[in-house]
Amino acid sequence: MARLFIGIVVTLLAGPCSLRAAPAKVDFARDILPILSDNCFHCHGPDEKSREAKLRLDTKEGALRVKDPVVVPGKSAVSELIKRITTKDADDLMPPPDSKRKLTS
After folding, report:
1. Would 69 be classed as within a structural domain?
2. What is the mean pLDDT of the chain?
3. Contact 59/5 with Cβ under 8 angstroms?
4. Exposed site from 11, 22, 27, 55, fewest CB < 10 Å?
5. How confident is the model at residue 58 (pLDDT cuts 50, 70, 90)?
6. What domain range is 33 assigned to?
């Protein structure tokens, strides 16, 4: 009888775990582009006059440029963009502290 009770409890507790929806797949246009637009395009976007560091993040070609790539697909550990948004060094942090923009997780 105890085994039956334990079996029922385990089944009831495990059941809801399997019903959880899988995390939604990240969609660039829906999930990433708005973050870049709000926090990065002011200095690294389409406006050539306000662009800094000769870096464009509003185009795939700009982000994945061959010389000094900022984004390295599948290799976040070597991606300069990831390094810049996660660094503790205020001199290297993006967006810069004086921009009044801050990325949150």
Report:
1. yes
2. 85
3. no
4. 22
5. very high
6. 27-96
